[in-house]
Design brief:
The protein contains one helix and five strands. It is an alpha+beta fold. The protein has a five-stranded antiparallel beta sheet with strand order 1-5-4-3-2, with helices on one face. It is elongated, with a radius of gyration of 16 Å. This is Lipoprotein.
Length: 129
């Protein structure tokens, strides 16, 4: 599962927040949205592979994929616009079809968090999927 695309894929989403401040890199809101974005992007990549000549390399149990954002670091904070730049690892765990044991890999990702002009909403941009 350690197939890293050469292109950096970007996914984005809106996060409804509670309060006026941008969520920090390690906040539950930010981590949950990053996982949601990653799930959608990985599902899209699996579908593209299934519809290509590489369909044989896609595991049959992709629904068992569990994602978690770990090793989170704030690489930059701009207080003038209340934005965060974050680095982390995306931990991907899926049960091996033959051994039935969990197989875990990590993928380095970066993400930015910023407020939108709408009250209480945030934009997260994820790179490295």
């Amino acid at each position: 599962m350690k197939r890293i695309m050469l292109l950096v894929l970007i996914a984005a989403g809106l996060l409804a927040g509670c309060g006026e401040k941008t969520p920090k890199c390690s906040s539950d809101d930010a981590k949950n949205l990053v996982v949601d974005i990653a799930h959608k992007q990985i599902k899209k990549q699996f579908e593209q592979l299934r519809n290509s000549q590489l369909e044989g390399i896609v595991p049959g149990n992709t629904d068992s994929l569990i994602l978690k954002v770990i090793k989170i670091r704030t690489t930059h904070y701009d207080s003038s616009v209340d934005t965060y730049q974050c680095a982390a690892s995306l931990q991907m765990t899926m049960t091996d079809e033959q051994s039935k044991l969990p197989n875990t890999t990590e993928l380095p990702i970066i993400y930015d968090i910023q407020k939108t002009d709408n009250n209480g909403q945030f934009y997260i941009n994820v790179s490295g999927l």
